[in-house]
Amino acid sequence: MLLLTAIDRLFADLVTDSLTGFAYSADLAGLSYNFSHQSLGLYITLSGYNDKLHLLAKTVIERAKNLKVNADRLEVMK
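The structure corresponding to this sequence follows.
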């Protein structure tokens, strides 16, 4: 169980890291998200203007689903 928790946390950190540039643009548009690990699993929290939340959700979920881990970033996040 402890190993899964560490892997979940690392995955959440890597997804968040991969979305840094996107998150800045989203923030300028009045949108924000949080992709995090909690005791019961992974959570995505979205906030901002309703008419654009579906685009934010799609981008975050697609990135998590298709994450390509850069070896340099993995070393930093470990």
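Helices lie at 2-18, 20-28, 50-65, 71-77.
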